[in-house]
Records
---
Amino acid sequence: MGLSRVKNQHPCFAGEVTINRGRIHLPVSPACNIQCRFCTRSITKTGRELQRPGLSAELLRPEQALVLVHRALELCPEITVVGIAGPGDTLATHHALETFDRIHQVYPELIKCLSTNGLLLEQYADELFRVGVRTLTVTVNGVEPGILEQICSQVILKGVRYKGREGAALLIEAQKRGIRKAAALGILVKINIVLIPQINGDHIAQIAQTVKAQGAGIINIIPLIPQQEAGVFDIDHAPDCTELSYARQAAEVYLPVFRHCQHCRADAVGIPGQQDLSPLLYEYHAQEQTFSHG
């Protein structure tokens, strides 16, 4: 699926369509297999005004997700994309694949989109394509182990915990292989980069050049959202406009840059930047929380 075609349908790949195209994010993925130092995942009914990845009002089972898609389309017929972006990593458990399998059988016309850290992307790329995924976002915050180890503190693969530079190197190589495999299948790959100027601010061009070589088609620079409650980073401010502009210019030498990111939650519903229908949807779906967060 080419970028030009996606631009007419996908609000997270082309900003000009965000005024009339919607998406639903389904929070079905409970666990993560890496630990980014800035990341705090949370399942909470309160604090809906907070807009950032990793947050969701609840976790869904795959069979429940299909019901929500049907209801979301009733509330917002402009929805063209079903995405899964957490709150954990989408490939760390089987839930995202099962969810897309169910939805693709009923709604083959909807774009299926997945966000992942890429650790297991190579392993599951064929299965993702089978269940209808044609657009994919991989978060790549560094392509040099010495830089990435400052951002990602550990990687868990096949039950083994890798820390520091070893874990960073493992993740980098897995991401390269996964992006290459997905692109070869015909999946359009977007790269998210969390901009932390003190760490990877001068590394953006190298990231962009590296992911382009693997087959990525577009880049999104996400300013760090400081979360001091995580107790890990000493960084207490987000990148300013000048730093963000510099990073985008560096990336744009190699790939188109998406400039309309809304820092969407893992349970976002509606047209980005215009409407948030998730309170209506989850009020309709009110139920006891039973999905283990692990």
---
Amino acid sequence: MAIKDFFSQELKVINIGLESVKESLEMVNVKSVQVDFKPPMAMDSKVMDIIRRNKARIEEANKKVLAIIIAGKPRLIGMGRALDVIPGVEKNLVLHAGPPVTWERMCGPMRGAVCGALIYEGQAKDYAGASKLAASVRIKYRPCHEFGAVGPMAGIISASMPVFIVKNEEYGNLAYGTMNEGLGKVLRYGAYSNEVIEKLKWMEQYLYPTLEKAIKKTGGIDLKNIIAQALHMGDEVHNRNRAATSLLFRILAPAIMRTCDNGETAAKVLEFINGNDHFFLNLSMAASKATLDAAMNIKYSSVVTVMARNGVDFGVRLSGTGGQWFTGPAPVPDALYFPGYTKNDANPDIGDSAITETNSLGGFAIAASPAIVGFVGGTTSDALNYTNQMYEITVGESSAYQIPYLNFRGTPTAIDVVKVIEKNILPFIDTGVAHKDAGIGQIGAGVLSAPAGPFKKAFEGFAKTLK
């Protein structure tokens, strides 16, 4: 713009400070524009200096990690029992969602899910017996993430549970995830009643062998392709999986009909998948895990490879700090609650499903599925704003996962903990909500921003690797 044209334009005040200044200007009819600006998070100046001195090699490492994530090719290749296919799993080992946690510190829904798993395994007859066993030295607990696995909500995986096996065909690593039970009173939300156990047994005895044969018949299923299509059809592949589940159903149905010996069993399996819009969720999580695990242990990289919650703590892991966990208190989501429940009934955020956000899906792709923000009274513009903010804290964009409403722009990919601190913007997550007490189950769904504490600790821990 020429200088003469600049002075002929209507002048406005640009305010980068408190919004109250803009409000005061408007009261005297002075037009103004508010800049959405936040100062960096308060961090030790010595730590900030270390990061600045290493900026060039951090950026180079992060480009490498971004390329690994984008090149990932998650493919569903089979199924098996956890004890048989997940390396390191033992009979008395229970895997759980989020960072490490002991029985003494576990929240209500995770305790309920652990007890349900022990009843399912035949190691206890009821909640009282299971609770006593769970508190004993006989049962060991480890995070799913430390075994290449992921689980939604409580995320419990016990020895006999069937799991999907997902292979990153580009890099050869495997990831594992359980089958989704559906909504309501289910194990992952801490329910353990007879009907919960009966459903799990049906899944083990009928759903699992039927799917195992069908997957083998297909020769494997390209999960990346399904996720990419689902984003174009209104899913964000975390809280909304209707399109992804439908696409999976279309692939599985003919294979099930050709490989299942019992017509009634085939019909019930197809009805179960068709009636469970979230069936694909566990696969989107395993696909994300397989993709991100390939990007672990890249020296000097500040990219986040895990965000996970156990209902007490929110945990973060970085590529450049290996398997180290950085944790802080898990927040309670803002949610739309089922009738009869309020935020006072809600457990703090729980589950490994934030691996989808870590992989540029879920809350990061919410502009592809604006109906999700309706959970908390939001609007389409809110969904767009959430996704646009996430571009500020990521290294780049996905080439495969695109958002139609943003002119097919790639989803924001590879969360950079340095940018999170410098821009004071936290990852946005959509999630389900469990009742804080064991045995009740799901009471709502909603959204939240990740807590700052774990990212500050991760930033400091990362800086220590650079000295």
---
Amino acid sequence: MPRLAIVLALLAVPALVHAQGAPDTLKKIRDGKSIVIAYRTDALPFSFEENKQPTGYSVELCKRVAASLEQQLKTQPLAVKWVAATSQNRMDLVRKGEAHMECGSTTATLSRMEQVDFSSPIFVDTTGLLVRKSTGAKALGGLAGKKIAVIGGTTNERALQAALKKQLVSATVVQVKNRDEGIAALEAGAVDALSSDKILLVGLAGKVKDPSQFELLADDLGFEPYAIVLPRGDANFRLAVNRALAQIYASDAIVEIFRRTFGPNAQPSPALVIMYGLNSFPE
């Protein structure tokens, strides 16, 4: 074989290996005529169960995304299979191919992008604090010497730890497995505060037996851009999902989903309005 041909063959090997290793999620969905969506059961109001059925802001968005994929793939009908996920296994389900996407309240971060990909943002929020009024705390500094619950291994925990360090506040961080465990500890008086995404804390505050005993502080401890978790390295699938989101953001569909979730008189924050606009990409 001529030397040039050998060189070209060797150069082609890495590209071939890379192409073979890249996932083809759209083909799997088209061939199976179904899409598997992982969803959180404890992320009210974004993803939770009602009458044993997945519902919430993120779930409704993903239902519309599935409908768009059905049209893009010209595969009708496209069955949607739902798989319950936790904060611990949500990304593993997508990474291992057990779900095609995850719809919940997952924050897109650079470190997580080493394992999975993300869609365009679907919501923006901040890390906040729900406290027992009896603590007298009006800001993070008022929780010095107190116990603060947070789900271990989350962006909320990192934001909380960073804020405590930056503001020189000495408090005990108590890791919990999920928000239900955290709210139970808060109600029982085992902890003085619970840290999580602000909008989720609003939902949790409505679930306690006596809401008047708790208060959501004004502190914004960290920026939380939510996105749909997707398989890493599948550009075609990410494009198809983002195309669907762009269609939703540019139509009345997003207004319907937002008001159904947060109430008929609820108004999106200025940051959220900007996010919708920036991700309404034209064809």
---
Amino acid sequence: MYLRKYKVAAIQLDTKNNKPDNLRKACGFIEKASAEGAKLICFPENMNLIGKNLGEGGNAEKIPGYTTDILIKQAQKYGVYIHSGSFRESIEQDSRCYNTSILIDPDGRILAKYRKIHLFDVNLPGKTVYNESGRICPGDEIAVADTELGKLGFAICYDLRFPELFRQMAVGGAQVIFMPSDFTRDTGQAHWEPLLRARAIENGCYMIAASQTGQKPHYESNGSSMIVDPWGNILSRAEDMEGIIYGEIDLDYLAEVRNQIPSLKNRRLEILACNLR
């Protein structure tokens, strides 16, 4: 039986090159959000580190491990669900790592794990060269977790540009989708909001999009964390600073929207299945 209505918090961070400091700050936001009644608390991409961090906690880590252990204790302490955003998961015998999200329940159990599937590789001569796959290993599994909060789907940052991933999650039952990100200012100002609203509208789902903000070593993060409802309404949006935004998840409203716009039911699979590759 699902909890039909509950409060969710999305944490906007300006993560730096010191893992212990970043996580102490994250714990402070968890305490504040839980005091405000949030049942589910969500973080952005690279929530524990942006940089090399040669000190405590290291760089990429195992799961369970340094960051996971801290978040588990926070979930148990405050009796909340925590979506980790994402952080670097180490891979044995590989110089690369995974960009990984986990979901922790109030008892401290890891309910689901998702590794970012789509990696940003681009080579525009004289303009932009970026090879994410040189340091990140792509995941190969779609994740939807069945919890008391409903069915929760997982994506990370660049995944947002691939609508077929979100459609598969929705067809698999996802009602709420996590979208932790670190969009740059240039692409974020043009694409962040329309893509989030489109994914919500297309699939009749809530989008919880916690984002990075602030100046990073090589770029400026877009910020503008959002919670979007199944109709495409922006329930809350963060300003250009660290902080918490809140929204209400209403699964009865979600069902109403899906009945009103039954695009999931009206798909022509006999045609699509033959022509899509």
